[in-house]
Amino acid sequence: MLRPSWDDYFMQIARDVSTRATCNRRLVGSVVVLEKRILTTGYNGAPHGLPHCTDEGVGCKIQDGHCIRTLHAEQNAIVQGAHNGVSLRGATLYVTCQPCNNCAKMIINAGIVKVVFDGDYPDEFAMELFEQANMELIRLRPDMGGIGEKLR
After folding, report:
1. Residues β-bridged to residue 95
2. CA–CA distance from 118 to each of 47, 64, 109 (Å)?
3. How far is 133 from 50, CA to CA, in rounded Å?
4. Active-site hit among 74, 124, 131, 149
5. What is the pLDDT of residues 28-84, one digit of tens each?
6. 41 has which bridge partners?
């Protein structure tokens, strides 16, 4: 059996985390890692104690083509760290799709230094923000056996 790379290993965990997502428009999972140890995880879903998109009779709340009921997986992972007093400074974020610009801003401010993702999201401004912040970006290519394509 071939042993997965660390990037593949943590991305698979992010994919597993995404199975907890409660917005069917996009199932996203994230894992924040420092020195090969998991600090936090997050998936997209409604704020704690509020109705989820998947709850009977609730559904998505769409505005400008986006569901605004849910927090993004990256946001939930960052908030979880803050809630539990865990610094994310110097960490790597693994996420199942490219972050949006709002998440990019939070990632930068949380002190995360590297983002590894494997799915597309049409947000060029997020990529601009990452470039301006000198963020290390790697896109895993499942179609190429999980090979990482360094974008920055």
Report:
1. 30, 117
2. 25, 25, 22
3. 34
4. 74
5. 999 999 999 999 999 999 999 999 999 999 999 999 988 999 999 999 999 999 999
6. 31
Please provide residue 106's backbone torsions phi and psi, each rounded to the nearest 5 degrees: -70, -40
Q: Coil, helix or strand for 29?
A: strand
Residue 1 token pair: 């059996």
Report pTM: 0.91
Tokens matching residue 95: 């996420």
78 HSE (CA, 13 A, CB side):
21
Place of tokens 């140890």: 37
Tokens of 126: 């997020």
- Is residue 74 part of the annotated active site? The answer reads yes
